[in-house]
Amino acid sequence: MPGGRFVTVTTDSPVAGSRLPAPAMTLSLAQARRVAVAAQGLAAARPRGQVTARHLQRVVDTVGVLQIDSVNVLSRSHYLPLFSRLGPYPRPLADRAASRSPRRLVETWAHEASFVPPGTYRLLGWRRDRAAEEVWGGLVRVSREHPGLLDEVVAVVRSAGPATSLEIERTLVPAVSRTSGSWWDWSDTKRAVEYLFRAGRLASAGRTAAFERRYDLPERVVPPAAVAAGAPDRPEAIRQLVAVAARAHGVATESCLRDYFRLRTEDTRRAVTELVEAGVLLPVQVRGWGRPAFLHHEARLPRRVDACALLSPFDSLVWERRRAEELFGFRFRLEIYVPAARRVHGYYVLPFLLGDRLVARVDLKADRPNRALLVRAAWAESGAEADVPRRLAGELGELARWLELDRIMVGDRGDLSPALAVEVARREPTVATAR
What we know:
This protein has helices spanning 29-39, 53-63, 80-86, 91-99, 118-123, 125-133, 137-145, 149-160, 165-171, 188-198, 224-229, 234-249, 254-260, 265-277, 321-328, 388-402, 417-427; strands at residues 6-8, 19-21, 25-27, 66-67, 106-110, 112-116, 203-207, 213-216, 251-252, 281-286, 293-296, 308-310, 349-354, 357-367, 372-380, 407-413. Helix 13 (254-260) packs across helix 14 (265-277). It is built from 17 helices and 16 strands.
């Protein structure tokens, strides 16, 4: 790591290569947006030709973490950030990365349930240790009624290999209770398995077609090099996690850095201070932000970016809602759990990134039986340029081909829908399926 309170900033601006005192740099909002978009890998040109595991690894190394979510109205959420950065790519690449040895992705609790590189999995060992020391409310009764259940579950997995919680439950003799409760109607076995996963005694060997975890022993999942490296102590692990978050943000506030891996305030603050002292982070001002900000010492400051991407509602560029509003002027709220009559923009809404701005949002659904991509609503942001419908139509065509859907159907809800429907009809009267 560079030392002292000076850093060398990689940039396309006139200050390239300058050694700047820590508090001396001020970024405009437009500069901060370009830094953020570049840091997330969204400014880079998409691969030409066949997308390979090396391309996927580059995205994983750039963003650091892929959030998992079970909603499948369009596509499982962890596939979409890869599409946003790579364009149409073979989804089996992502499946193999998380389910075959040597794994490039390991599932754990990071920013919610997530896929992370093996090196980051080891940095989260303190969180698994903490879970192992906590007594979950549902386990009190389970432990009383079924003493030894946790060890029995581990023994089943050790003997049988990768198994879902239901397969584990069916193997246990005598069968344990399937009593429903407040824990999403989980059976006692499911409670035990989830605890063991959070505590690191079990790991995920991959997911089934129904998106169920297949549990296995960590030593049979985590690559040997990551196991051999061991876990650093908690302060060092958190410092490294904050550094990963900082690189993925480019420029960020302390709360942004904390949210990336859902860290505690005092831990993040200590890590930020140490990273500033080490020269990894440069304190900067961002015009319009009322909070201190930090620039990663490897961040690029491009003069312009030509990004064009639909973003999952779980994309790491828009995780932190206050950041999205301060950086892009984009107020974004998930409405999946909002009653339909009260939704403002739709059920599964994807922001549309064009250049360094979030210029539109679309409510999408994959109508698989009819092989159609449904645009149930399309909304333009204030000040969106006239070119937005054309660029959005092109990106929707790429998405439809990737999802192996034959056509795009645009509804009439939203102020952008009429112009978008015209462009879709002009560009994509039918969408050739990519096989």
